[in-house]
Design goal:
414 residues, alpha+beta, 3 domains, seven-stranded mixed beta sheet, membrane, transmembrane
Amino acid sequence: MTVTNETDIAALRAAIAVARADAGLGRSGHVRRLFEYLAQCSLERRSPKESEVAIEVFGRPADFDPSRDATARVYVHKLRQRLERIGDAAGEGLTIPRGTYRLELRTAEPAPAPTTARRLPLAAMAAALVIVAVGSAAAALWLRPLDAAASASTSPVWQRLLDNGKPTIVAVGDYYIFADMGAPDGGPRLVREYTVNSAADLARFRRDNPRRAAGYEDLDLSYLPVGAAGALMNIARITRRPDLVKVLPASSLTPTMIRDSNVVYIGFLSGLGVLRDPTFGGSRYRIGATYDDIIDTATGKHYESGGGQPDRHDDMYPDYGYLATFAGPSGNRIVIIAGTRDAALAQMGETAANPAMLDRIAARGGQALAAEALFGVNSLGEINIESHLIDASPLAPSRIWRGGERGSVTFPAG
């Protein structure tokens, strides 16, 4: 409820006092400072801008770039969640309206009519997940209106892809998962096993590990990284030609597709699949054994993501993003947009639509436009807070299609 008179101000002041005294607000200094700042602004009947919040509460410089620093948005989201938990069962208390930076009284809403819930069989739940994931990705890709991100299409990274007359495949890194019908708790559960990436892999795993895999069943199910959504939308704004772009899971890529089409990979570094050897064939980097670490072979330095560590959701942790662009085997183009975890992948989706950063990467690619860039991403929860370029380097074009540690890509004749 918007504050419009002195009675509303009194009610708002009372609700602020209740929230301030509630242990649910937490002890975080950032959240507490943000709450007090928004409380003061709201009692003064003003709604600060994001830049004001970032400067006044989080000490950001006056010239900071909100597109590269989401601290204010992240902590407003955290504060909103805590205020909603503090509110009573009738829906009263405080809220922060979406898209604003002010406290408002939350009015009671009628309870929804009761519904009858039922448990879906595991296979049905799996199918529903696939439908939602694919449908959401497609809708996000083609229904999002164009905006300033389309200007990235003028960068050589995208211009060479858009102007070569070849169709484009957007390959989203997917992960095969299966069911364990004999889980210790007695109920079925979904399993992700790094060595099992297809139904054929599962059959081999069951054959080689009969006792461990006694309850394993194929569900024909894969999942996609959450961080891929933003990148998909940005690619849609850049390409602007849905009739020439096909979206499919990276596990469906074939050598013929890689030979004849432009390929834009969006996903985790661990999900590159058949693109892994070409991507790192001419690279200074390689992926470590945990798939969460990147090793610089030129310096020996390891970059390990903190995204897989337990109890990390309330702390900042490092994540790493990777962008690469190089020629395919038939004059087509390959663009890699990847991260070790979701926060970095989301950031790379934004960076892939940043003309200035793309130009810096392209400048390292020489006449063949073969270049890569490694980014550090400071993350909170699954949110990319800040990113910085670690290094942009040329790739070695002559080594890209020779094959790597797992063998080369074999292309059909013709």
